[in-house]
Specification:
The complex is a heterodimer of chains A (164) and B (677). Chain A contains 4 helices and 11 strands, in the order H-E-E-E-E-E-H-E-E-E-E-E-E-H-H. Chain A has 164 residues and is α+β, with helices and mostly antiparallel strands. Chain A has a single domain, classed as CheA-289, Domain 4 (OB fold (Dihydrolipoamide Acetyltransferase, E2P)), CATH 2.40.50. In chain A, the strands form 2 sheets. Chain A has a 6-stranded mixed sheet, with no helix packed on it. A 5-stranded mixed sheet of chain A has the order 3-6-7-5-4. In chain A, strand 10 and strand 11 form a beta hairpin. Chain A is globular. By secondary structure, chain B is of the alpha+beta class. Helices cover 44% and strands 22% of the residues of chain B. Chain B has 22 helices and 22 strands. Chain B has a 6-stranded mixed sheet. A 5-stranded mixed sheet of chain B has the order 6-8-9-11-10. In chain B, helix 4 packs antiparallel against helix 5. Classes of the chains: A alpha+beta (164), B alpha+beta (677).
């Protein structure tokens, strides 16, 4: 029986709180909350699926489970690069949807205290900005904290479903 | 029948059940069982409507109502208890007094209304909402009917008679059978409440395997004071059974809230008269053995099993077609792997067959619809089944029942004429709707046929023209194409919207639901003779035989059943239509359009020269098309998996399949491809 007492659930929540997985795409360092991350795998053979936006590269077979993969580079309108052995797929699960994010490389799991997290500057309307939930300060560096839900549930994805 | 093991329910069981609904197995069992019983009862009632009496099945009816009442009492659902109790009163009256003039159709109405109420209640229980429906109105209605019944037949019997039916029941079966004679004294846990009902449930369960000779105290259901007696002295029951003492003990100790049980054997005498059982008991026993060999399993467990078998098939391919084995002489390996393949195929078939459910339950539900609508519209309609024992995958059945309801309703509403009209046309007064199911290759055909007035071709055509749906000149449309307009959303030839139809939603639902499970719908009709709607659905969705075709680096799977042939093209047979930029090909005198897969799926092919690649001819129903790909990669059984939810639907793709290598291929949706072009 998978009955976990309430305290231990609380504990799991606590240990995950304030923890972020950081990765790089191009020059920038991004971070996502650890609670969304299911696993990290190397790049896999991807099956192309027609009619999808360019940044959805296709689908992969994750031990019998089939999930779509998104190239974060193309999503953020950066120049696509060839995948190499540093390229990783971060499998995240948001609202019961599993999706793989293709990133240049994964660096580490960090703790960022609440006081070091600030809202993103409101100065520009760049496309990139709408996926940034907050900015985390770690030492002298800055990590861009991604809004996973927006990354997945956006107008583009709805547009796809309308085409089909 | 369900096998219930409830030994670990604790004292507050009932309270937990009432609050925490989805996770409680007892409750799930109750909901499932009660639904079964309700539909059983509905069927019996409807089947006997024609004969205008319940006849010998009154005992079965009584048993069902009683079981509903008993289990509802156990679960503390009072509205269900009081309703089934009044129903029981009615049936009791009919059974015991056998009144001569029963208004059967009113009886059916009352019973069906109560069953609807019960259904709503059980539904509410299932989704965990509050049971706030007022049961008293319907109970009163039943009571009025009962008193009417009693008055009409001048049989106002005192209530005393009704209380001792338990005794009578026992007297009816003087020839007790069974090898062993037991006496059991049962005590229930303190404070478990409703000891009398628990005792009755226990006895009811026992009756399935044993002959109850006597029990003490009597009148446990009617007399509330027996609760006290059971509490202090226990519940004593004597019975005969073929089971040995150990079995009886385990059976009895499975009872809810059982505190203590004393079981003793009374002179185990051989009963030589067991063969003299009357017919009735014999039949009952048979039924019981059938029921007990069934076990109900949660569908999600079957889904897991199905997934695992899918994985097994994939893994087997991975091992047997492992590239490292290539070029090696492996005689015994090949032999062993062939045997492995055979076994996995058998496992696959076995698992599939578990998921197969006969259509009869779905068909039975139509009785009710036909009856209700026939009454309201003043039409006399008979429903006939052919091949209702045909089995279909559980998932598909779920998608079938809505379309069938719509089709049957349409047939009653639009198809069948009123009795007067029918007489004028020289048809029999009562219309007939036939539901037919049969296996046809890898498909199941479900046919809904009526002998009504048929579809009005002109009317449909006019309506389609008005809505701007005609894509071809009028005279080029075939009858079938015209009829298929009725499946379009918002298309209704009816002028006014009424309770049953007119909004043009129904047929659209039919089409959507059937398409979802990869099926097709076809309409045939002729004026004044009737309409036939044929639904063609695949037997199962999980594993299909596919042909792998390669286009550039991508591999697609085409279901074998839709492939007609494949060949190398010759440039001379290709016709190019420069204006439309379309290509066609002559195949044995027929002209088929060519679809270049690399253009359709926008992938980089090896070749764009028709002579270098391969042409695959696919068909569905009447349409044929040539697909152009780079090469055929061979045949393979593939496990169909749905596309991830995020991607939703892609044109021309019905799902994906994991190949032996672990790669994913896309499965082509041939019928959709044909419709696009």
């Amino acid at each position: 029986m998978a009955e976990i007492p309430e305290e231990s659930l609380q504990l799991v929540e606590d240990t995950q709180k304030g923890k972020f997985l950081t990765f790089s795409v191009g020059k920038e360092m991004y971070a996502i909350e650890i609670k969304f991350v299911t696993e990290i795998i190397g790049i896999q053979p991807i099956t192309e699926v027609p009619e999808l936006p360019e940044y959805i590269k296709g689908i992969i077979n994750l031990r019998g489970k089939i999930i779509p993969v998104m190239d974060v580079r193309i999503r953020f309108i950066k120049k696509p690069v060839e995948y190499n052995d540093r390229t990783c797929v971060i499998v995240i699960e948001v609202k019961d949807i599993s999706i793989g994010l293709i990133v240049d490389n994964v660096s580490e799991v960090l703790s960022i205290a609440d006081v070091d997290i600030v809202p993103p500057p409101d100065m520009n309307k760049e496309a990139e900005n709408k996926y940034i939930k907050a900015i985390g300060k770690v030492g002298k560096e800055v990590k861009l904290i991604l809004d996973c839900e927006r990354l997945i549930n956006n107008n583009d994805a709805q547009a796809i479903s309308k085409i089909a | 029948m369900l096998i219930s093991s409830t030994d670990n329910t604790n004292e507050d069981g009932v309270d937990i059940l009432a609050n925490n609904l989805d996770s409680e197995p007892m409750l799930e069992l109750f909901v499932f069982e009660t639904f079964e019983l309700i539909s059983q009862l509905e069927n019996i009632i409807l089947n006997n409507e024609e004969a205008n009496s319940i006849g010998i099945q009154i005992n079965e009816v009584f048993r069902i109502v009683h079981t509903i009442k008993g289990s509802a009492a156990m679960m503390n659902f009072n509205s269900i208890v009081s309703l089934s109790h009044s129903l029981e009163d009615v049936f009791y009256h009919i059974r015991e007094n056998q009144p001569e003039n029963v208004d059967y159709s009113t009886l059916v109405d009352v019973v069906l209304r109560s069953l609807d109420f019960l259904k709503n209640e059980v539904n509410a229980i299932q989704i965990g909402s509050n049971l706030d429906n007022d049961v008293s109105i319907i109970v009163q209605e039943i009571n009025e009917f009962l008193s009417l019944l009693k008055n009409e037949n001048g049989l106002q019997k005192p209530k005393a008679v009704s209380t001792d039916f338990n005794m009578q029941k026992n007297n009816e079966v003087p020839e007790v059978t069974g090898e062993n004679h037991f006496k059991a004294l049962i005590f229930f846990e303190d404070g478990c409440e409703m000891e009398n009902i628990r005792a009755f449930t226990l006895m009811h369960n026992l009756e399935k395997v044993a002959n109850v000779i006597s029990y003490c105290p009597k009148d446990i259901i009617e007399d509330q004071e027996t609760i006290e007696i059971i509490r202090s002295n226990g519940f004593e029951i004597q019975f005969r059974t073929d089971l040995c003492i150990d079995n009886v003990k385990t059976l009895l100790s499975n009872t809810l809230f059982m505190k203590d049980i004393k079981l003793e054997t009374i002179s185990p005498i051989k009963n030589k008269h067991s063969s003299e059982e009357n017919d009735n008991t014999g039949r009952d026993n048979n039924q019981i053995t059938v029921k007990q060999s069934m076990i109900s399993v949660n569908i999600s467990k079957l889904d897991i099993l199905m997934d695992l078998v899918g994985e097994l098939v994939i893994m087997q391919d991975m091992v047997i077609q492992n590239p490292e084995l290539e070029g090696l002489a492996l005689n015994s390996f090949n032999k062993a792997s062939r045997q492995l393949q055979k076994v996995t195929n058998e496992i696959q078939d076995a698992v599939m067959s578990i998921r197969m459910v006969p259509l009869s339950a779905t068909f039975q539900r139509m009785h009710r619809i036909v009856r209700d609508m026939g009454k309201k519209l003043d039409k006399d309609v008979k429903l006939e089944f052919i091949g209702e024992e045909t089995e279909v995958d559980k998932n598909i059945i779920e998608h079938l029942s809505d379309p069938l309801i719509h089709l049957v309703r349409n047939a009653v509403d639009h198809g069948i004429e009123s009795p007067e009209e029918r007489e004028k046309k020289g048809k029999s007064r009562s219309g007939k709707i036939t539901l037919e199911a049969r296996n046809e290759g890898g498909d199941v055909w479900i046919i809904v046929r009526d002998d009504g007035k048929g579809l009005d071709r002109e009317n449909i055509l006019q309506k389609a023209k008005k809505q701007g749906l005609l894509k071809k000149p009028e005279n080029e449309l075939t009858d079938r194409e015209i009829y298929s307009y009725i499946f379009l959303p918002g298309f209704s030839t009816k002028k006014e919207v009424d309770e049953f139809s007119g909004r043009g939603v129904g047929m659209d639902v039919v089409n959507k639901n059937i398409e979802e499970v990869g099926g097709t719908v076809r309409v045939d009709s002729s004026m004044e003779i009737g309409t036939t709607i044929t639904i063609k659905i695949p037997l199962t969705l999980a594993i299909i035989d596919g042909m792998k075709v390669r286009v550039g680096k991508s591999i697609y799977v085409i279901p074998i059943t839709s492939i007609k042939e494949s060949f190398k093209a010759q440039e001379s047979t290709v016709i190019k239509d420069e204006a439309n930029k379309s290509e066609m090909m002559m195949i044995r005198g027929d002209c088929c359009p060519i679809l270049r897969l690399h253009e359709f799926f926008k992938v980089q092919p090896d070749t764009t020269n028709l002579e270098e690649g391969i042409i695959i001819v696919v068909e569905n129903e009447s349409r044929v098309m040539c697909l152009f790909a780079d090469e055929l990669m061979g045949e393979q059984q593939v496990v169909v998996k749905a596309m991830p939810g995020y991607i939703k639907k892609v044109n021309g793709i019905s799902g994906c399949a994991v190949m032996g290598s672990g790669d994913i291929s896309l499965i082509m949706d041939v019928s959709r491809l044909l419709n696009i072009s």
